[in-house]
Amino acid sequence: MAIPPEVLYKDIPELFEIDLGEALTARTEALSTFRELGPPDLCHVVKSTGRTGQRDLGSYHYVSGVDASSSASLAAYINSLTYAIEENSAWFSSTAKWKVRNGCYCCFNAFSRVDMRVDVKIPGGVNAYVIDLRGERHEATPEIWQETYVSALLRAILYSDDPTYTLEAYRKLDPITNAEGELRFLQAAEALFSKGWQVGSDPEIQVATVVSNHLTAGIMKYFGDSGRYQQAANMFEKIMVHEPEVSSLLARSYIGMNEEVKAVQIIANAMKETPQSYTLLHAQCDFLRTKGKYEWAVKLARQAVNCAPSEFVTWEKLTDLYIDLGQYDSALLTLNSCPMFTFNGRDAHRTLPVAKIHLPFTRAIGEILPERTKTEDDEADPALQRLPAPGLRGVFVMEEEYRMQKAQGDIKQVGGNGQAASGSRGVIHEDGTVVQDDKASTRGIIAPPSPEPNEVPTIKISSDSVDLRGADPKGKARAKVEDEDAEEGDIVATPSHLRNGVSALVEKPVQAAGEDKQDSSDITAVAQAEPFSFSNKRLCERWLDNLFMVLYEDLRVWTIFRAEVAHFKTQHVAYRKTGMEWEILGDLGVRLHHKEEAKEAYQRCLDGTRYSVKPWARLMEMYAEEGDAIRVAVYQTVYNINEYTDFLAPSSRILRRLLLYVATSPHSGNVQLMRTELGDCQRDIHVTTRRTSGLPDTMTHWSFPAERFLSERFLL
């Protein structure tokens, strides 16, 4: 179906339907599949010329950040679309003028699990109603409008920086443009705070609570990314009167404000009322980590696991702390015992076939960017595209990070010549590094510690020992093994803390069903000897075992890549890759903790003609740590404008870090003027910094009007 150019919007993306109204029908059918916050808002319009026999056209786009507090505000957004259609180039043109005749705005209410819809007829009236999960209509009430308003704000905040959540024709508007809007958001959030668990939580949280849900996550993200915790702290103080668990959020807010003494006092008082709150324990853990007290934090993390053993986040926190301490064996045991959870991604609309996709761009901005069309730069080696690590989610990402942290720690312990310490056995990895052998393949069968710590432990592998173990009525196999003499299968001397598997954290395995059970006295003795255990697990989980192959694939591809680079350098030949390949290699370098090589790969990606904002976003994060992110920030701003994004949380975090760097740098003055020339688009960036006794009071002025959040709202 041909779509005439005069029906298109000037600067708003849109998807044209094949059958009129199919987008609304598909959304109604999918309402029952929305599990948590729901998808972005859907704005559907019908365009017509008014002529008899002329077919009406239906188009729609997705949007977040529109004020959904009333039918009037949503109707105003649809009415604004009437002025966005391309004007005819000539006044005497015989072509009929297309106009928006009616529209429907759909906004999902995550609290009541209904869809708020506003029908607008131009000219005509406005009709607001509610569609439930069964597709039935209901009347809209003030309570439902308030819930819809907060739901829309949470989607705009939490969906803004999710790199895995992509939609065609998705506009991201700034949901809060002034101080009055921010105050209204806080008032609505306070009124609905007790219902926050109804909107769900992150996939890592098994059970949403009053402090662990999307509402609290949105509040902390909005105010935390900009470093303005005071407003959130004021709200939490009022709620804490009747919700003691909110003390963990209040303490985090005070820590973010550098009010650490007050935060510690709040945690101490709250622990007397709710000592079993794992969120409070985690707040203490995070505070102790910033102070380098990892041993103390581990004890609290263990207590959090005991308080909430079914929550993945408690095991994740304990694993992080073991990594901080360099106890990678304990970290691996913790991961192997953690509860699995099903990763549920963001709610999304069902993809429909469309008649036309219209993605306009502003001339002054869009012409300096590569074309959106697919080119040879978007192709990549199948071996790179098949890497499984980028698709990991949830617990699998945690395990991938653990293994790379362990590898980096092992490499640092090896001598500078690439050889392990003298007198020890080494393992040669595929990339050529040599680390000490931890004897992981044999420690599982080594006998437990004997009374004499200096005795050489041995184990006899024979049928006799197996028979004795099976005939033991008490299941005391460990005593039999300790009494046997060293005849065959001797194991070399091993440190005492490694003889019983990996560490003393693992108890003796419980006998399988059908065998004689242990005496209750034996079980009690073991429990008293070690109060914290990992459920007697000795076997590696299947998912954990498979992830070692994922790491192997990453290391194999990275080793080949670095070898090729070294070879081409020695031959003085340019090493060429497509833009897509450089981007994949940059991601691979980030996963393997090779920061400089990853930065180089992202920079090489920018030399091509591939349309992608990802390299700029990654480089901005890297350069912000070095105080050299201005140029990259401007380029990402241009991409954001071209992607119809007026609100993006990562940019605010990066800018805040950059401004802190500029304000605290010994070379920073009162005013810095930086000019960036981007083709025909020249913009002046004025950064005014003023030192104060505490955090720097920073004022910025950016010439990009669409990036209002960079200059007005995210002030320190």
UniProtKB/TrEMBL annotation:
<dbReference type="InterPro" id="IPR015374">
    <property type="entry name" value="ChAPs"/>
</dbReference>
<dbReference type="Pfam" id="PF09295">
    <property type="entry name" value="ChAPs"/>
</dbReference>
<dbReference type="InterPro" id="IPR011990">
    <property type="entry name" value="TPR-like_helical_dom_sf"/>
</dbReference>
<dbReference type="GO" id="GO:0034044">
    <property type="term" value="C:exomer complex"/>
</dbReference>
<feature type="compositionally biased region" description="Basic and acidic residues">
    <location>
        <begin position="466"/>
        <end position="481"/>
    </location>
</feature>
<protein>
    <submittedName>
        <fullName>Chaps family protein</fullName>
    </submittedName>
</protein>
<dbReference type="GO" id="GO:0006893">
    <property type="term" value="P:Golgi to plasma membrane transport"/>
</dbReference>
<feature type="region of interest" description="Disordered">
    <location>
        <begin position="465"/>
        <end position="488"/>
    </location>
</feature>
